[in-house]
Amino acid sequence: MLFLKRHSKALVIAASILILYRQVLYDLAIEWYNNPDYNHGLVLPIVIFYLVWRQREKLSATPVAPRNTGLLVMLAGLGVLFGGELGAEFFLTRISLLILIAGIIIFLWGSKHLRIVAFPLSLFILAIPLPAIIFYQLTFPLQLIASKMGAGFLEAFRVPVLREGNLIILPNITLEVAEACSGIRSLFSLITLTVLYAYFLDDTAFWRVILVGLSIPLALLCNGLRIMGTGMLTQYVDPQAAEGFFHAFSGWFIFVTALFFLFVMHQGLTLVRNSLGVRKCPT
Asked: Cβ distance 269 to 206 under 8 Å?
C-alpha cells in the first residue's frame, strides 16, 4: 500500500501509456517475433528493466526536482505519435513512446533522474525497426559488400568464381546474396550485444564507442566469411548446402564467431590502453 501511495501518479501514467500505446506495442511485439532482423527485441525490454533496476539506489538518492518542461516534451511525444498515425509511419509512433517517457520522467522527477536512466532508455532504439526507406537503402549496399567479400575470400582459396552484382557464380551453382544474406540481421544484433558488452565490461566512454564502432566491420567481415563457407560447401561437398540446415547453422556459427572476435578485440584494446598508460575514467 505504501508503494502504491508513493508512486500513484507514476502508476496512473503507466496505465495510461499502456492504453494509449496498446496497438503500437502489440504490433511491435509481433514484428519482434516474426522479423528475424529484430528478434533481439523480445529480450531487450527485460535487459532495459534490469539496467534501470540496477540504478534504483542512485535514483532514490537523487533529489526529486520536477520540471514543467517535461510537459512540453510529453506534448512533443504525443505530437510525434499523432504524426506517425496520420502518415502510417510505424517508426514515428514507436519512437514517440521514448519521447513521452522522457517527458514524464522530467515532469515527475527531474532531468537528473532522466540522465541516470538515459542509457537503458536509449537501448530501446536498437529494438525499433528502421523505416522501410532507410532499411532498403542499407540492404542493397550491404548485399554488394557481402558479395565482394565472399567472392574475394573464395578466390583466395583458389575457388573459381565470377561475381556479377550480388550474384556469385561458381562452376556448379550460382549463389544469390539476397536481402536476408546481406548481413543486416547480424549487424543489428551484433551492435546491440556490443553496446551491452561494452557497458558491462568496460568503464570508459571513449573505448566503449571504439568497440561499438569496430562491431560494424566485424559483422561485415563475418558475413563475408559465411558466404565463403557456403560457397566452399557447395563447390566441394553438395550444392544443396546453400539451403536448409547448413545455411541456417552457418548463420548461428558465424554469429558466435563474431562474439568471440569481439572478445578478442576488447582484450586487444585493453592491452593497447594499458600500454599507453591511459587512466580509467568511469562513466
From this structure: no
What 3 state SS string does 68-127 have?
Answer: CHHHHHHHHHHHHHHHHHHHCCHHHHHHHHHHHHHHHHHHHCCHHHHHHCHHHHHHHHHH
Q: What is the pTM of this model?
A: 0.79
Percentage of residues in the chain with pLDDT exceeding 70?
88
**Interhelix angle for 132-156 vs 205-236, to 10°?**
60
Q: Which of 23, 140, 43 is nearest to 90 (CA)?
A: 23
Contact indicator for 175, 167 with CB cutoff of 8 Å: yes
Cβ neighbourhood burial of 199 (10 Å; 0-12, 13-18, 19+): middle
> What 8-state DSSP symbol labels residue 38?
G
**In the predicted structure, residue 113 carries a pLDDT above the cut 90:** yes
Residues ≥6 apart with Cβ < 8 Å to 257: 222, 225
What b/e readout covers 66-76, taking b as 16+ CB neighbours within 10 angstroms?
Answer: ebeebeebbee
Q: Work out the pLDDT band at 144, boundaries 50, 70, 90.
A: confident
Q: CA 147 to CA 169: how far, in whole Å?
A: 10
- DSSP bridge partners of 116: none
Please report the pLDDT score of residue 187 as a whole number: 83
CA dihedral (12, 17, 22, 27) in degrees, to 10, reads -150
Sheet of 174-176, strand order: 162-164, 167-169, 174-176
Which pairs count as long-range contacts for 134-139, CB under 8 Å and 24+ apart, including other chains? 135/184, 138/184, 139/179, 139/182, 139/184
Contact 110, 65 (CB under 8 A): yes
Angle at which helix 205-236 crosses helix 184-201, to 10 degrees, equals 140
